[in-house]
Amino acid sequence: MDSAGEMAAFVETAERSSFSAAARALKLTPSALSKLVARLEARLGVRLMQRTTRRVTLTPEGDVFFRRAQRIVADIREAENEAAAFRQRPRGLLRINVGNSFGIQQLAPALPEFLTRHPELKVEMALIDAHVDLAAVGADLAVRVGPVGDDRMIARKICYAHRIICAAPSYLAERGRPLQPSDLLAHDCIVMAGMPALARWPFRDGSITVSGPATSDSASGVLELGVRGLGLVRLADFAVANFVRDGRLVPVLEEHNAIESLPISVLYPPGRHRVPKTAAFVDFMMRRFSHRPWRLDAPKLPRIPR
User: Fold this and answer.
1) DSSP summary character for residue 247
2) In this structure, how many other beta carbons lie within 10 angstroms of the beta carbon of residue 131?
3) Residues of 209-239 as b/e, b for ≥16 C-beta within 10 angstroms?
4) How far apart are CA 146 and CA 246, in angstroms?
């Protein structure tokens, strides 16, 4: 194998921190892969990796080399993919990692249209709110709401979402409608478990730390508790839009609420955007969601400084 192949073997091993995982991805034996990396180290005259029985880590020299080599390998793969894309159609299995709320409320209803456009594709949609390593879970791409949090990936921004405060009519009938942020101190509010920052709701003139009788570890759980009348919720507009339109939730404190612009992005490894199935999905997301079809008419609200 040539120097480009040795570099690709090194990059794959560094990304996965494992010879065995990288070997499976490259369809090589672990010993063959280890020899390729050792040959690269011998040619460069430096140790790039520290090996243990359980894990592979980069040396300082290896970390510097990895940053440059990863871009080079990505460029080579991208060039190959661009050439192959001219004769390929989107086909095969597309594994998508997406948060519960966006996946259930927006992506799942849109998938029939996507699959109709690309009949040779199949989709596996994994619903998970945590940010996971795409390579580790075998996903082709992810739809992320909020900060991407992984500079190794390419992020294609689709649009922005905003959080709004709302409650079920049954809750408001029993407890009354809050008219100003300080009223929330006397109300039940449903927030995400284990995420204290999301219990601090921002307003035009400050913020209020809220609490309530129940929490959930997912936005979908918070939404369901809100719809059931357990308290007020502050969730992304794409999550609550359908419930507001059909009257199951009612927006409150609209003139006081401050907008947080939450980017919605498609995330994928470098070099993958020209793979036909990836490119097809990114293009579809732009066509379907860039104009924020869930948007609710609302007065312009002050934005939170970023």
Assistant:
1) T
2) 16
3) ebebebbbebbbbbbebbbebbbbbbbbbbb
4) 27
- Joined together, the tokens standing for residue 93 give 């299995």
Name the pairing type of β-strands 92-98 and 121-127. parallel
d(CA 276, CA 92): 10
| Cα–Cα dist 20/236, whole Å | 41
Q: What is the DSSP letter of 162?
A: -
CA atoms within 13 A on the CB side of 61: 9
CA distance 286 to 156: 9
The CB-side HSE value for 54 (13 A sphere, CA atoms) comes to: 0
Cα 81 from Cα 83, distance rounded (Å): 5
- 63 close to 56: Cβ distance less than 8 angstroms: no
Measured in residues, the chain has a length of 306
Task: Going residue by residue through the chain, which has 306 residues, state the pLDDT in tens, using 9 for 90 and above.
Answer: 478 888 888 999 888 888 888 888 888 898 888 889 999 899 899 999 988 777 889 999 989 999 888 888 888 877 776 666 655 788 899 999 999 999 999 999 999 999 999 999 999 999 988 777 787 788 899 999 988 877 788 899 999 999 999 999 999 999 999 999 999 999 999 999 988 889 999 999 899 999 999 999 889 999 999 999 999 999 999 999 999 999 999 999 999 999 888 999 999 988 766 788 999 999 999 999 999 999 886 444 444 443
